[in-house]
Design a protein that fits this description.
Elements: E1 3-9, E2 15-21, H1 25-34, E3 38-44, E4 49-51, H2 63-78, H3 83-93, H4 98-111, H5 116-121, H6 129-141, H7 144-200, H8 207-222, H9 224-240, H10 244-256, H11 260-281, H12 286-296, H13 300-314, H14 319-324, H15 331-343, H16 346-402
Length: about 400
Amino acid sequence: MPTFRYKAYNAAGSSVSGTIEADSERQALQQIKGKGLLPREVTEEGGAVAPAGSFSFRRGVSTDELSLFTRRLATLVASSVPLFEAMGSLCEQEEGGLLRQGLVRIKERIAEGASLSRALAAEPDIFGESYVSMVAAGEAGGALDAVLERLADFLEEQEQVRSKVVSALIYPILMVFVGGGVMMFLLTVVIPRIVTIFEDSKASLPLITVIVLKVSHFLQGYWWIPTALVVASVPLYRNAMKRDDLRLKRDTLLLRLPLAGGMVQRLILSRFARVLGLLLTSGVPIMKALDITGEVLVNRVYRSCLRGVMEDVAQGGSLSGSLKKSSLFPPLLVHLTGVGEKSGNLEEMLVKAGIAYEREFSARLTRLMGLMEPLMVLGMGVAVGIIVIAVLLPIFELNQLIK
């Protein structure tokens, strides 16, 4: 049976470590959590470090489906409808798919006496640990309907941000495909038909024409090479991103990009502040809230930094003081966090900071898209213009020779 080394936090927030025997990493995590510990790192002896779980508000269903379900459930709970009846009503409203199948099983568990959080936790493909933790905190605090309402609001807002990003990317992607298609058509169909005019002439061709002809000949004979590279790049990228060191390099590069880096940082900060504020508002303890927030953040640079913040907080440091030690967290967020800690409304200040960074992200995205559209049109025009010039220059020279 494999042996796993682990690092975790106990109920007092202190860091502990040890070894445990289990058949798999998942069993090891379950045993560690069964001891009342919050796992931070789990390593198989002789293996690589594995994250202590994957947390997400959304798993196997769309955000729209999950937010709608959460909103409906909040309405039913606020109306004092028993959970079993509420689940039965929600099952009937779902037409099918993964969510309905999960709700049927959840309904059966509730009928057997399980709490809502435990019933949801048994469906990890639909409900992430962050979602379950907030529901459990809401049940313990007697404010399940309010927690579900906040969850629904958050999911809807995250879907709006995702829709903005997707909508902003549609135009550039479309331009790339259209521009690439036009260039391929010109180089593989148009250029070869007028090459014969140049071949019959013994006059020397301009350098730009020679380059375009060589590119055209290459694409005609070896078109499969760029095609294979494009097709193979997707699985190669996915396999490469399975390595933590490469993902860390990619995330570091994203933060350093001239224009997009600032946008990515604002989006990460917005998600960090809003998720952490939402978890704390729902009654989740700060150490568990930080752990969940760290896993929700997909950027490895921020995730690694947040582990250091957790260690500082576990040793008795303040959250604002821990954030201030890293340049990844700007002074505004640190200041708002400090004000929230002093005034006792940390959750509210974190949510406000998240909203502020989300607005900054939206403003930067709008400006970037406004700049990118004319630049892409200009780039496409320049590329087509080069081909046109490469074709016309030798034709003009031939006309001069005829005269």
